């Protein structure tokens, strides 16, 4: 198990910079497309520096996860009888330098020749079904197999506190077939990072922001011939636009039917759901009237902005 750098006394900003040097265990499930809202494109953008990882204080959920981590580790030690300890370091794979791991803890189970990773989770009661069998959720499985691969361990432990009331402790054995697939996936992803080649555009807000940053203005009058696969993309775009309009019309019709049922009522009960159609008052500025009545004031506060409008003809 090779130590890339010690994280003792390292602040968050410095730690995030070190994380950019490779693929961490929390990056692995995102690269595999298993983390909603955290796409391969977003991970790539963080690694190449086009999106800065947040250095702000953690969210309320993440904060409680951090605060409870030590308590959970001590309870795992009490329940299993195995020694649990910290490893304040970023671990690097002996062969694949792009594979990194920050371990929550190491656990000394006598059945293994050396300590193995212990991954600690806190999760909502709404996700308890993911832990009902003897395994772990797919995204967690990928995360710990990345840790197993990076450290060379024969297995890993996962401890999850569910809904703040139920602790489950699972052993995850090494899966060499999954690890081979994971290494290949990560190797290809890291090639994209090294060559600064973005993964496929995924329709996310991050993708839109990256495109706006990369190409903020068009060169007026410039025209190019697009590659042959542009035709398929145009057809895909127009088909999605048509289906979106159909779905919007269907949603609007259902909404109108519910409004008709409510009539003058503000709230309606349907089983365990509540339908609300209430009064909302807001104040807005009539810019056209302001411009007509006070053109000098309007001109003083008006701001011109430029953006690129997309259309297909």
Characterize the structure shown:
With 313 residues, the protein is α+β, with helices and mostly antiparallel strands. It has ten helices and ten strands. The strands form three sheets. It has a five-stranded mixed beta sheet with strand order 2-5-6-7-8. The protein has a three-stranded antiparallel beta sheet with strand order 1-3-4, with helices on one face. Strands 9-10 form a two-stranded antiparallel ribbon. A hairpin with a 2-residue loop joins strand 9 and strand 10 (273-276).
Largest beta-sheet characterization? 5 strands, mixed
Termini separation: 58 Å
As a whole number of angstroms, the C-alpha radius of gyration is 26 Å
In which range does the helix fraction lie? Answer: 40-55%
Unreliable parts: none
List the helices and strands and how they pair.
Blueprint: E1 2-6, H1 12-19, H2 27-31, H3 40-48, H4 60-80, E2 83-85, E3 89-92, E4 100-102, E5 105-108, E6 116-123, H5 138-151, E7 155-162, E8 166-173, H6 176-194, H7 205-214, H8 230-262, E9 267-270, E10 273-276, H9 287-293, H10 295-301
Parallel strand pairs: 6-7
Antiparallel strand pairs: 1-3, 2-5, 3-4, 5-6, 7-8, 9-10
Helix pairs in contact: 3-6, 5-6, 9-10
């Amino acid at each position: 198990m090779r130590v890339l750098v010690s994280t003792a006394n390292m602040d968050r900003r410095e730690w995030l910079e070190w994380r950019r040097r490779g693929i961490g265990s929390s990056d692995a499930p995102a690269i595999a497309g298993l983390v909603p809202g955290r796409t391969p494109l977003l991970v790539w953008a963080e690694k190449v520096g086009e999106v800065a990882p947040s250095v702000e204080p953690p969210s309320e959920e993440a904060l409680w996860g951090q605060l409870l981590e030590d308590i959970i580790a001590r309870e795992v030690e009490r329940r299993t009888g195995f020694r649990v300890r910290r490893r304040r370091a970023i671990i690097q794979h002996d062969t694949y330098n792009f594979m990194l791991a920050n371990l929550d803890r190491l656990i000394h189970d006598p059945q293994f020749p050396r300590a193995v990773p212990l991954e600690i989770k806190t999760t909502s009661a709404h996700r308890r079904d993911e832990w009902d069998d003897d395994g772990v959720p797919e995204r967690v499985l990928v995360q710990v197999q990345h840790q197993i691969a990076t450290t060379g361990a024969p297995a890993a432990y996962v401890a999850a506190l569910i809904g703040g009331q139920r602790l489950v402790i699972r052993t995850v054995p090494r899966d060499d077939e999954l690890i081979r697939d994971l290494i290949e996936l990560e190797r290809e992803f890291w090639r994209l990072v090294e060559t600064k080649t973005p993964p496929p555009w995924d329709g996310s807000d991050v993708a839109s922001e990256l495109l706006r940053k990369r190409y903020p203005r068009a060169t007026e009058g410039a025209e190019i011939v697009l590659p042959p696969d542009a035709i398929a993309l145009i057809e895909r775009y127009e088909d999605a636009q048509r289906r979106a309009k159909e779905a919007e019309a269907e949603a609007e019709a259902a909404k109108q039917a519910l409004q008709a049922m409510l009539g003058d009522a503000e709230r309606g009960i349907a089983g365990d759901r509540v339908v609300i159609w209430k009064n909302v008052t807001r104040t807005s500025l009539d810019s056209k009237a302001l411009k007509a009545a006070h053109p000098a004031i309007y001109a003083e506060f008006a701001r011109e902005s430029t953006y690129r409008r997309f259309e297909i003809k």
